[in-house]
User: Fold these one by one.
Assistant:
Number 1:
Amino acid sequence: MKITDQKKALQKLGLNTPEDFLYHFPSRYGDTSEMKSIGSLVAGEAAVVFGKIIGLKTGKAFVKRTPISEGYIEDETGRLKVIWFHQPYIAKMIHDGALVRAEGKISERKGVLGMMNPKIETVATVPTGVGDSLFGSEGEAHSLYPVYPESRGVTSNWLYHSIQKILKSGILDELKDPIPDYILKTYNLPSLATALVWIHAPLKKDDALAARKRFAFEEVFFIQLQKKKERLLWQKEPAFTIEKSASDIEKFVARFPFKATEAQAKAIESIMTDFRSGHAMSRLLEGDVGSGKTAVAAATAYSVITSRPKGQDFGRLQVAYMAPTEILAKQHFESFIQYFTYLGINIGLITGKECRKFPSKTNPKEWTNISRAQLLKWVENGEIPILIGTHALIQKSVKFKHLAYVIIDEQHRFGTAQRQKLAKKDKINPHLLSMTATPIPRTLALTIYGDLDLTLLDQMPAGRKPIITEIVLPNERENTYEKIKQELKAGRQVYVICPRIDPPAEDGIRAGEPDLTTLQTKSVVEEAERLEREVFPEYKNKIGVLHSKMLPADKESVMEQFKLGEIKILVATSVVEVGVNVPNATVIIIEGAERFGLAQLHQLRGRVIRSNDQAYCYVFADSKTQKTVDRLKAFKNSSNGFELAEYDLKLRGPGELSGNKQWGISDIGMEALKNIKMVEAARTEAEYLLTNDFEFEKYPILKDKLIKRKEGEIHFE
Ligand code: ADP
Ligand code: MG
């Protein structure tokens, strides 16, 4: 491999300094005692072998010309054929003669034993038997070896050797522990130097576990410190005091075409209590799809815009309401128009494409398009007190006269920097309300929302029929389609969710070859064609496709057509997850359901509970393992997103919380989330430390580390 390639690969992994390497932790530990010698293998059994790889090359399979990698693994007792379909890059990743560990099922073809699509990783040493020391420093027999997350160009083996070299370079004597000593003692955590040795070269499993615990605590502790500090700084600054109470907005709330739920009323009350407090609010409103967050936003916005700027008996305080997509921004604009008609309140809409103002000059019930310049002028001079929009709101050219309240919908869709840009538009900090429908476990919420107060909207508006969820077996597919046709005939619309966008690069697999389930997973593009051809031919031109590779404008246009009912059946990936309101869509089919986290499934299901009509969720799964069955049963039986998020955390582990990248937590930090006690301890210690030493004067190493973390964050955004 060329040096430059490797450099690039290392940069991609974020490995630049020796310290970065030391903080690149093994994803798991292998155990050499599980190994079998190649000579002793029997067809049909599952096995782990260690050996030297030879003759590895790319090629095309005999039938269908599928791209493959193939070669042999050799140990002193024999030679085993290995072959991978659809993974030609394997041959490029592993060089001839490399020592590997391979795991898979032994098959036989014409008397030759082989492994198809084995899991493979390069290893440091091939153990030759009991008593052989893998790391061999003290001559002690132990069989654990670390396995590092690989990426193209950097193997686990290479990482192992590099990290061992660094460990032995004496750097451990220089490294200073950022965690205060008293905390390590309280929770019985190993010091930094010890933990680094234990995590990269453990003699026993317990050492590795203790080290992982320390680093998991460390990460959650740092995040807590950062978030809490941000929160305290935010609260120190001057804020708008809004002296309104529930009775002041009673008449406004009475205008809603429904009665507010108790949960909504409580949420409104706690927000208004914050408004009166003299501190800038930072609150998260967490509620399932359809729980009515927009109405809470509207009622509290009303209390702000009917308040005067300080020391003035004219003018209005202003509200900015940001949504992640144009279609959502427009949806909120329309809801607000409904809530605010005839009150003489101007509402603006700003997106990348257009600007609108409500009401128009000629019709008090309608909006009108206006020029960007005109809109910006009216926002700046305060004539438009409510401005709703997309990212366009963040632009420097958008200036407010008295921005007192910022509402951010689906807040996780925005980066911290984007959120801050909107919140920091003015000298005075506005009150900040973030909203989300993404159910996450309590430990994760405590960690990533350490800077926010939490309000749950844990009640659905009355009159909603509970959604009917059915797990559909393959032989019931036809039946289910018949039921769906009845719904379509009655004028309803349907979502079909698939786990992937395109069909696999190469079609099909040879008979007798392993069943690569990924290749069978339904893709949006194919499934749309199939449904049109075989299942719903009568809706030929009314089937739409939506996925993340489409241009934003195309996505919006498809969503718009679905909203207008021009598209009856929308085949989509999970991009459809975010809160678009199409009350007429009452059926959702989820294909390959085992591939989604339960909380995510729940969110998808939430697409169809917008109206008072009976809604249906049909779940198709490709896998029939007990685990899949249990998970999907839990999904069928629970209508509580948080419960489902907890369930997945327990049963599938933190990795299943659909992408830790989204949450800005590393894999090891996610390990802490299974442990509520650890998360609470990190929180308590962070609070204690900040109360006693806000500037970390006694802990300069910690201070340094937090500054570095912060720089890293900005770097990525
Ligand atoms: P979300 O929390 O997903 O953002 P929305 O605010 O979009 O939910 O509300 C979903 C639908 O429920 C809207 O059509 C809204 O008018 C309606 N709604 C909100 N609150 C209530 C309520 N208390 N009773 C009946 N319907 C309500
Ligand atoms: Mg919403």
Note: The domain at 292-436 is CATH 3.40.50.300 (Rossmann fold).
Number 2:
Amino acid sequence: MKIVVLTGAGISAESGLPTFRGAGGLWNGVRAETLATPEAFADNPQRVLDFYNFRRAMVREAAPNAAHQAIAALERHHPVSVVTQNVDNLHERAGSTDVLHVHGEIMLARSSRNPGLKVPMQDQDIRLGDLADDGAQLRPDVVWFGEAVRHIDESLDRIREADRFLVVGTSLQVWPVADWVHHATRAGERVIIAPELRTCPDHFEWICGTACDEVPPIMSRWARSALAD
Ligand code: OAD
């Protein structure tokens, strides 16, 4: 039985990492275009690096929570793929082995000229003047608005083949990922967990609760269930 879990910022909220929208969200009172676009980086690189250095430090301090751990533990029973919009590494640190970061990874830096030229950036800040091997300024290896979302084909393949599909902690307001939920047509159960949601996609059960409360019982139930259930 193939399981796919699509996650957003809300799954890491109980690990202490802020979401983007809503009270306390990173985009609350801030125009995302001033921090998360190639133009913003060209205009004020220090401001952009400060924002991502701050967030990288928060990720370092954070630990995977019960939701990340329950998703990873399900791999003992079924193949599990995680498609995440999150740039943190909490799924991997919980033990998940198939994680597609469609919006990039904050613990990597890359050349601002050559997207393929990456270096690990775990314990330090990216500073102005830190250069990649091609001589270009390093930048966070995250996807900014106007840049291409990654792993689209692999994500859609996994979602289309899923027998069970769980969506956790995303407002489904950012494209193209918001549209991907409509491709889980084979999944016998489609569940979305979030405390608030503007609209619940068709054919989904919406569980209005938090990731740490609601994900572990669903993962336990799916661990026990065979495809015929
Ligand atoms: P959002 O901040 O848009 O949405 C977070 C969702 O998580 C909301 O629906 C909340 O109700 C829910 N939530 C909050 N706390 C939760 C909890 N404890 N348990 C479960 N759910 C909870 O975040 P995303 O949908 O991930 O992109 O945002 C998508 C993209 O927008 C991000 O990847 C980022 C941002 O701009 C880029 O930076 C490219």
Note: The CA atoms of residues 8 and 85 lie 5 Å apart.
